[in-house]
Amino acid sequence: MSLQRMCTEADLKDIGVPMGPRKKLVGYLKDLHEKEAQRKEQEAQRAEEARLQEQLAASTPPQLSLSAPAGPRLVKRNSVFFMRQKHS
Questions:
Q1: Alpha-carbon gap, residue 88 to 84, rounded angstroms
Q2: Tally of domains within the chain
Q3: Structural domain span for residue 47
Q4: Sequential DSSP letters for 21-85
Q5: Does 11 reside within a domain?
Q6: Which residues pair with 74 in a beta bridge?
């Protein structure tokens, strides 16, 4: 359980913590709580983004290529077929 939830400014006053240190401690605990809340929110956003990316990847069909494979091709010369390599 968070110290901030367990110990309020009134509690600190009751145990005799002077005003200056009490205000600093309360401010520090408030900042700590806000940073923790931001961290949890960022983690939740990252988890949601990862879930959506996985869902999109699962629902997207694979892409098919219609281009011809690179390799030998037939060339007709004088009614005779020759194999010719494609040069890059």
A1: 13
A2: 1
A3: 3-61
A4: HHHHHHHHHHHHHHHHHHHHHHHHHHHHHHHHHHHHHHHSPPPPP-SPPSS-EEEEETTEEEEEP
A5: yes
A6: 83
Confidence of residue 7 (pLDDT cuts 50, 70, 90): confident
Q: Summarize pLDDT for 43-85 with one digit per residue, the tens.
A: 999 999 999 998 888 887 767 666 666 666 665 556 555 555 5
CB burial string 4-24: b at 16+ within 10 A, e below:
eeebeeeebeeeebeeeebee
Find all residues with CB under 8 Å of 3, minimum gap 6, and list them: 29
On the CB side of 46, CA atoms within 13 Å amount to 6
Residue 69 counted as domain residue:
no
